[in-house]
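Researcher: Please translate sequence to C-alpha coordinates.
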Amino acid sequence: MAALVLLRSGLARPCGAQMALLGRTLGRPPAVLAAVADRSVPARQSHSSPQQGHGSSRAASLHWTGERAVSVLLLGLLPAAYLYPGPAMDYSLAAALTLHGHWGLGQVITDYVHGDTPIKLANTGLYVLSAITFAGLCYFNYHDVGICKAVAMLWSL
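Model: Translation complete:
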Protein backbone atom coordinates (compact mmCIF):
# COMPACT_ATOMS: atom_id res chain seq x y z
CA MET A 1 0.00 0.00 0.00
CA ALA A 2 2.79 2.39 0.90
CA ALA A 3 4.50 1.62 -2.40
CA LEU A 4 1.36 2.59 -4.29
CA VAL A 5 1.11 5.86 -2.39
CA LEU A 6 4.76 6.64 -3.15
CA LEU A 7 4.30 5.69 -6.79
CA ARG A 8 1.18 7.81 -7.12
CA SER A 9 2.81 10.78 -5.41
CA GLY A 10 5.75 10.57 -7.80
CA LEU A 11 3.48 10.46 -10.84
CA ALA A 12 1.03 13.10 -9.69
CA ARG A 13 1.32 16.72 -10.79
CA PRO A 14 3.06 18.88 -8.21
CA CYS A 15 0.77 21.36 -6.50
CA GLY A 16 1.05 24.14 -3.93
CA ALA A 17 4.24 23.97 -1.91
CA GLN A 18 5.65 21.24 -4.14
CA MET A 19 5.26 23.49 -7.19
CA ALA A 20 6.94 26.39 -5.40
CA LEU A 21 9.87 24.18 -4.37
CA LEU A 22 10.12 22.73 -7.87
CA GLY A 23 10.04 26.22 -9.41
CA ARG A 24 12.83 27.44 -7.12
CA THR A 25 14.94 24.35 -7.83
CA LEU A 26 14.53 24.53 -11.60
CA GLY A 27 15.19 28.28 -11.57
CA ARG A 28 18.68 27.88 -10.11
CA PRO A 29 21.72 27.56 -12.35
CA PRO A 30 23.45 24.14 -12.31
CA ALA A 31 26.50 25.49 -10.44
CA VAL A 32 24.27 26.56 -7.53
CA LEU A 33 22.57 23.15 -7.48
CA ALA A 34 25.97 21.42 -7.36
CA ALA A 35 27.07 23.63 -4.45
CA VAL A 36 23.86 22.85 -2.55
CA ALA A 37 24.35 19.14 -3.17
CA ASP A 38 27.92 19.31 -1.87
CA ARG A 39 26.76 20.92 1.41
CA SER A 40 24.05 18.34 2.00
CA VAL A 41 24.43 15.43 4.36
CA PRO A 42 26.19 12.52 2.65
CA ALA A 43 23.86 9.73 1.61
CA ARG A 44 23.96 6.49 3.58
CA GLN A 45 25.82 3.84 1.65
CA SER A 46 23.65 0.90 0.71
CA HIS A 47 24.63 -2.74 0.50
CA SER A 48 25.35 -2.29 -3.18
CA SER A 49 28.31 0.06 -2.82
CA PRO A 50 31.56 -1.12 -4.42
CA GLN A 51 33.51 -0.31 -1.23
CA GLN A 52 31.80 -3.18 0.59
CA GLY A 53 32.99 -5.87 -1.79
CA HIS A 54 30.16 -6.10 -4.28
CA GLY A 55 32.36 -4.99 -7.16
CA SER A 56 30.13 -2.78 -9.23
CA SER A 57 26.67 -1.40 -9.59
CA ARG A 58 26.10 -3.97 -12.35
CA ALA A 59 26.68 -6.80 -9.89
CA ALA A 60 24.29 -5.18 -7.43
CA SER A 61 21.71 -4.77 -10.18
CA LEU A 62 22.03 -8.42 -11.15
CA HIS A 63 21.71 -9.43 -7.50
CA TRP A 64 18.56 -7.32 -7.15
CA THR A 65 17.14 -8.88 -10.33
CA GLY A 66 17.91 -12.34 -8.97
CA GLU A 67 16.10 -11.55 -5.73
CA ARG A 68 13.02 -10.44 -7.67
CA ALA A 69 13.20 -13.53 -9.90
CA VAL A 70 13.26 -15.86 -6.89
CA SER A 71 10.31 -14.01 -5.36
CA VAL A 72 8.30 -14.36 -8.57
CA LEU A 73 9.40 -17.99 -8.86
CA LEU A 74 8.03 -18.64 -5.38
CA LEU A 75 4.69 -17.14 -6.40
CA GLY A 76 4.47 -19.76 -9.14
CA LEU A 77 5.96 -22.62 -7.12
CA LEU A 78 3.44 -22.46 -4.29
CA PRO A 79 0.34 -23.20 -6.40
CA ALA A 80 2.32 -25.66 -8.52
CA ALA A 81 3.38 -27.50 -5.37
CA TYR A 82 -0.26 -27.85 -4.39
CA LEU A 83 -1.33 -29.05 -7.83
CA TYR A 84 1.69 -31.26 -8.68
CA PRO A 85 3.35 -32.50 -5.47
CA GLY A 86 6.45 -34.62 -5.86
CA PRO A 87 10.17 -34.88 -5.18
CA ALA A 88 11.17 -32.35 -7.86
CA MET A 89 8.76 -29.81 -6.44
CA ASP A 90 9.91 -30.54 -2.88
CA TYR A 91 13.58 -29.93 -3.69
CA SER A 92 12.72 -26.86 -5.79
CA LEU A 93 10.83 -25.41 -2.84
CA ALA A 94 13.70 -26.27 -0.49
CA ALA A 95 16.18 -24.39 -2.68
CA ALA A 96 13.94 -21.39 -3.43
CA LEU A 97 12.77 -20.95 0.18
CA THR A 98 16.31 -21.21 1.52
CA LEU A 99 17.65 -18.71 -1.02
CA HIS A 100 14.75 -16.32 -0.41
CA GLY A 101 15.28 -16.49 3.36
CA HIS A 102 19.07 -16.12 3.00
CA TRP A 103 18.77 -12.97 0.93
CA GLY A 104 16.07 -11.53 3.19
CA LEU A 105 18.09 -12.06 6.36
CA GLY A 106 21.13 -10.70 4.54
CA GLN A 107 19.25 -7.43 4.07
CA VAL A 108 18.40 -7.36 7.77
CA ILE A 109 22.10 -7.77 8.56
CA THR A 110 22.98 -5.02 6.09
CA ASP A 111 20.48 -2.64 7.65
CA TYR A 112 20.96 -3.34 11.36
CA VAL A 113 24.46 -4.73 11.99
CA HIS A 114 27.29 -2.20 12.07
CA GLY A 115 31.05 -2.56 12.47
CA ASP A 116 33.46 -4.87 10.66
CA THR A 117 33.66 -7.72 13.17
CA PRO A 118 29.90 -7.93 13.93
CA ILE A 119 29.12 -7.91 10.20
CA LYS A 120 31.58 -10.74 9.57
CA LEU A 121 30.15 -12.76 12.46
CA ALA A 122 26.57 -12.13 11.38
CA ASN A 123 27.31 -13.10 7.77
CA THR A 124 29.09 -16.27 8.90
CA GLY A 125 26.10 -17.13 11.08
CA LEU A 126 23.78 -16.46 8.17
CA TYR A 127 25.70 -18.83 5.88
CA VAL A 128 25.70 -21.51 8.57
CA LEU A 129 21.96 -21.03 9.18
CA SER A 130 21.20 -21.16 5.45
CA ALA A 131 23.27 -24.31 4.96
CA ILE A 132 21.60 -26.02 7.92
CA THR A 133 18.16 -24.95 6.67
CA PHE A 134 18.78 -26.33 3.19
CA ALA A 135 20.28 -29.55 4.54
CA GLY A 136 17.34 -29.97 6.94
CA LEU A 137 14.77 -29.43 4.21
CA CYS A 138 16.57 -31.88 1.92
CA TYR A 139 16.76 -34.41 4.76
CA PHE A 140 13.04 -33.94 5.40
CA ASN A 141 12.29 -34.40 1.69
CA TYR A 142 14.38 -37.56 1.43
CA HIS A 143 13.63 -39.30 4.73
CA ASP A 144 10.07 -38.13 5.42
CA VAL A 145 6.99 -37.11 3.44
CA GLY A 146 8.41 -33.96 1.80
CA ILE A 147 7.40 -30.32 1.97
CA CYS A 148 4.33 -30.56 -0.31
CA LYS A 149 2.85 -33.56 1.48
CA ALA A 150 3.62 -32.05 4.91
CA VAL A 151 1.78 -28.82 4.05
CA ALA A 152 -1.16 -30.83 2.69
CA MET A 153 -1.24 -32.85 5.93
CA LEU A 154 -1.24 -29.64 7.99
CA TRP A 155 -4.14 -28.24 5.93
CA SER A 156 -6.16 -31.44 6.44
CA LEU A 157 -6.09 -31.11 10.24
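Researcher: Any highlights?
Model: Helices lie at 2-11, 17-27, 30-39, 57-83, 87-112, 116-143, 147-155.
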